[in-house]
């Protein structure tokens, strides 16, 4: 029993509700939400370290022992993601303070960001698959509000699609849960893993697992990403950054958990399908990124390429590849958030979103320009930045497993990512400036700080990969040996 | 347009007490029988909505000057508060406890902390329900 485990979920929720009562005190709302997220970040770092010394932690709510009660489980994988998500949210809040505007702040913007992060953290931590559904819904309901808040015509059109897609996906999730409960008679993830192993994962169970694959693919944007480019480009910049960094990653987390812990036995079926889906996702994402004319399209298709690339790690399924996938997941959350903040700032400065209509930004905003350059290199996977370690390890894993097609696709996508962002960099940042230095809009200080903090964390993840290795290796080991997880839950 | 709703008003004056009493009854009976915070809250909330339908917004607001968004917020605070309270007693999150107390007039009564949690649920349901109905009815 360790009550610290529930705090990353419950503290944002309680703070969010308190903020509802402080509707008109915006400065107070900012301070409280920032302090809360800082606290959650520190707390998740502490928890991550406790997991290293004491092994997997679990908290049985109100003392109901597994598999009967609902529980939260913290292994290294979950805690790494909780930590990264909290860091991203903290820095994004810093950006929001100076850019989001009074109108949003008065309409409960901060409470909903906190609800979103509560849902995300809950999804990472829960050890019960029905509770995973509940946490997904908490996250999605907050995201419905955040995507529609502002009430522009485009926002309403895209949010309607977004809500419909997600409601259908959630319904399918429930159907899949019903099938699963009907066949294995339990909802505790570790217990499901045991029962599935006992039954030898027969075709019926594999079919159920494929239903889960479809559901989580819809959420993660794996192959079924048709909703993503539209809905990720309409909300305010900071919401886009949060969505790009967190929402698809929760889907990826659920996929990895499902197919390493619960349904790992028919890899030649499930993992082959995931591999094909990842490959097609990368190809389609690259096509989108190449054909995009405006910065938002290019950025959103880069999210899709990232999803495909991480899931190569899962499809290949060796320990090296999983380590790479975790590294890349951390990198992708940080770098995609930064990319969306930068892209949003470009739109804020120039009022344009078409690449060719901007020019010479780097003259007026040198730091801004070079930060864009750094995130471009990081996303392309150039050492010593954060994308490098993940790419190399996933590549190494793919070679070990002999999946040369996925390997080629993965590395070819890096070049496309580099090309698509380089196009923005050359056209919009280099060249003659169209705005004189006096007329140029200043970038708010808070925004600069968030850029710099993200850049520091990207460089840290790249340069300090060695110091993260302890945590990531442990996470990958637990993923590859589900018995560690199962024993911690059912035999503790 | 003024609707002649004498019948509705007269009936509601009597019926509203029955509905509200039923809501409270369901809330407490939920401890050991069907009922509970969610259902009790729904019944209480629908009673309030009936009041809003029979009388106009201003009249009801004059007697019940609540912001129902805040009622819902208070409910969540109560529920999470009772859940998180267990942490301070070194028990797992969400643990509940109960004891028997003897009161001077009432005699021995069974008191539980889960009632606080349920009250939170009920308030959240009332707040959310009324807020939804009111915001739909507000824009013409």
Automatic annotation (TrEMBL), chain A:
Annotated localization: Cell membrane; Membrane
All copies of domain NADH:quinone oxidoreductase/Mrp antiporter transmembrane, residue ranges: 128-416
Protein's name in the database: Na+/H+ antiporter subunit D
Pfam families given in the database record: Proton_antipo_M
Protein's organism: Ureibacillus galli
Keyword Membrane: yes
Family recorded in the similarity comment: Belongs to the CPA3 antiporters (TC 2.A.63) subunit D family.
Keywords assigned by UniProt, alphabetized: Antiport, Cell membrane, Membrane, Transmembrane, Transmembrane helix, Transport
Residue ranges crossing the lipid bilayer per the database entry: 6-22, 31-50, 70-95, 107-124, 130-150, 162-184, 204-229, 241-263, 269-291, 303-330, 336-355, 367-389, 401-426, 447-472
Top-level taxon of origin: Bacteria
Lineage: Bacteria, Bacillati, Bacillota, Bacilli, Bacillales
UniProt key word Phosphoprotein: no
Membrane topology qualifier: Multi-pass membrane protein
TrEMBL record, chain B:
A Pfam short name: MnhB
Annotated protein name in UniProt: Na(+)/H(+) antiporter subunit B
Stretches that traverse the bilayer: 7-28, 34-53, 74-94, 114-136
Na+/H+ antiporter MnhB subunit-related protein domain location: 7-131
Regions annotated as coiled coil: none
Membrane topology (UniProt): Multi-pass membrane protein
InterPro entries attached to this UniProt entry: CPA3_antiporter_subunitB, MnhB
Subcellular location(s) per record: Cell membrane
Keyword terms of this UniProt record: Cell membrane, Membrane, Transmembrane, Transmembrane helix
Similarity-based family: Belongs to the CPA3 antiporters (TC 2.A.63) subunit B family.
